[in-house]
Design a protein that fits this description.
alpha+beta, ten-stranded mixed sheet, 10 strands
Length: about 625
Amino acid sequence: MLKIALRSLRRRWMTQVGTFVAVALGVALMTVMGLGLAASAAMPAGADVVGLNSMLGTAGGVSSFVAAFVVASTFSYAVAGRRRELGLLRLAGSTPGQLRRLVLVEAAAVGLAGSAAGIVLGGAGAPLMARWTVAEGLAPAGYAIGDQAWPLHAAFWTGLLVALSGAYAASRRAGRVGPLEALREAVTDERPMTPGRWVAGGGLLLFAAVFVGWRLGSDPGELLKRKTYTWQPMLLISACGLLAPVLVRPVVRLLMWIPVRLTSYAGRLVRANASAGIRRTAAVAAPVLVMVALTGSLLGAASTLKEAKSVEARARTGADYVLTGGRLPDSAEIARIPGARALAVADTGLTVLEEGFVKVPTEASAVDPAALAEVSRLPVVAGSVADLDDGGIIVTEEWWQHRVGEAVPLWLADGTAVRLRIVAVMRTGTGDNGAYVTPRNAPGAKVSRIEVKAPASAAGAVRETAARHGATALTAQEWLTATYPRTNRFTVLGYVMVLGIALAYTAIALANTLLMAAADRAGDLRLLRLAGATRSQVLTVMTAESLLAATVGALLGTAVAVVNVAGIRGALAVLGVDSPMIVPWLPMGAVAGVCAALAALCTLIPSAHALRSRSERRRARAGEVPGVGAGLASG
């Protein structure tokens, strides 16, 4: 079998090049992220290093998932396209075990070569990534890639393991290929779903649904955390990838319902090809599914949460004006304006003792109790804001102790240990409500803003007082618009880091899969020409089929993104935040458009090249190829 495997590698070089590229780029991606994380972990602790670790960890997790998904899908498709070849080996007397070993030996050879190449590419790309993060201000000036070896080992063996895992499932299916498969001319996928695929896909789908339901019922705030909404889409993406052979066929029929009725033969031919070669269609749709689903899920979750924080801030801000910047006036000076009431807010920090032994730092605001009751509209669910005093504290429902009257052990910003009585409990919301104490329990805290509640007639006096001290007076709406909806530059760059690299790799994988599919369909092109189709008609049908597969992937990815963002919206509703669900249609459409362009280009070029093959030109000159027939399309 070793000799057969080596000969097969040489003969099917186009398919093997495709799997090699998938493994090499996937390992390179994991190497870059691993080296980046190792270099970040070696730096002295600090706020900027914590942010860098968080960003690289998220990017590494997303990249590893995308690489594993694409590599496994590519190997599975590569083996599925060899049914007749494996059937010939069975006809020649090979046992199922020998076929499995053949597939695994080929996968090991390609996986080793691809992983080695990926290590080299990743080692060269990691310093470029480090320099970019420093130049963009995402990392401190001293950030540089070190000489750690464990990321290289982790990426190499992960790439090889994923390659073997993707080939193993396909090898078991290959071992079940019967000898008569070699005699079949049709390439129809009669049983695209195996029992294992049903169990794995259905299990992931069930787990995703149970997880969301469990969190909505027990801790909905967990669904709003970045770590959760980053990995949760991977469950649905993996489930859809495994169940793609089942999902693709009905989507194809839905999309082709109108084209079939508007054309005489082309629409039916495209639909039949896509439905018959269901594994090929699913393999092309899989990278598009990943790209669209990740873009929609991550950007949609972030945008929905951002809007929810803005809505929540509007609901709890009862002020008409907010004074910020400069040297803020004393709140007593603002209170002397007729009809005006002022709330000075100073930011401070507390350390809470939870569960009797865990110290948890938390943000808090120091305010005057009387002014807080007059100006603010806090989402209180128990107790009263008016009861706040030097011995009290207002907390949210997410605190370990959150019953009115309970004494909470904590440390103030200067390290002083105190026990404060809970006087009111706020709704958790997005987790942005914080806690409230009096200025006596916030030593050293400086006033960051003054919220003013005043009639329209006092607007001039408020602005004049602010200007006299060099501060800026904004209306509440202007302040909210400037503070909450604005997307931080570093947040945008972080998403470029997390999504950009993964999407670039997935786009290359899509082109790679399409080139592999085109190489395997040279026989289909010849049959269409012999049936009387013109060259342009053949190219139109092949391109339409690739565009159909890309559209199927985009629709499945959109469905995954909408479901994930809907889970975020459901968690917000449970937490009492009435904000809209935001689906990033424009970025998702842009990604789908890039996928469609790649699909058309990577099908058109190799198909046109195949039609211009030397043998066909000789047959055309000899008059063996029929002339233009009735054609396959009308209108």
